[in-house]
Amino acid sequence: MTNKLPATTIEFIDELKYKLFEEGKIPRPSDTAVSTMLPVDRTMISMYRNKGHTFSDETAIIAAELLELPVGYVIACIHAERAKSKEAKSMWEGMAKQFGSAAAAAFLVANLSLCGSAQSLEATDSPALSGFSSAEVCILC
After folding, report:
1. Distance CA 73, CA 106 (A)
2. 96 lies in a domain?
3. Domain for residue 3, yes or no?
4. Range of the domain at 76
5. Is 131 within the bounds of a domain?
């Protein structure tokens, strides 16, 4: 994932691992640690990763709150991910885009605060921030 908001269950899990670890809410960036925060069991995390399962609406709400993203954005992304028809997928993706504009700004600001400074941005492993240079971020600051 580069320069974009997470939009799938797996991307949300990966962002949660990074963010919760950086905030000291989990001891290490692992799926098991994320499962305790969602809360779902470790088996469910495996089903998300390996069987194509998606967050329930309730789990999506918790993930949104933990990631400090608009709940509507996360719910719309998850519904787009699980949609069966092209029409339904397109409709949910449109909803996600509507929420995503505000979410992108909030997500970038939240991640910058985790970095501590624009200079540390280039050294971070956050998938959401990969591709941004410190000069690009300074323009936003």
Report:
1. 12
2. yes
3. no
4. 9-140
5. yes
Q: What is the dihedral of CA 27, 33, 39, 41, to 10 degrees?
A: -150
Classify residue 34 by its DSSP letter.
H
pTM, two decimal places: 0.71
Number of domains in the chain: 1
Domain-located, residue 2: no
pLDDT digits (tens, 9 = 90+) for 32-77: 999 999 999 999 999 999 999 999 999 999 999 999 999 999 999 9
What is the DSSP annotation of 11-61?
HHHHHHHHHHHHTTSSSSS-HHHHHHHTT--HHHHHHHHHH-----HHHHH
Q: What average pLDDT does the chain have? A: 80
Question: Tokens 């397109």 sit at which residue?
Answer: 90
Q: What angle do CA 129, 58, 74 make, to 5 degrees?
A: 30
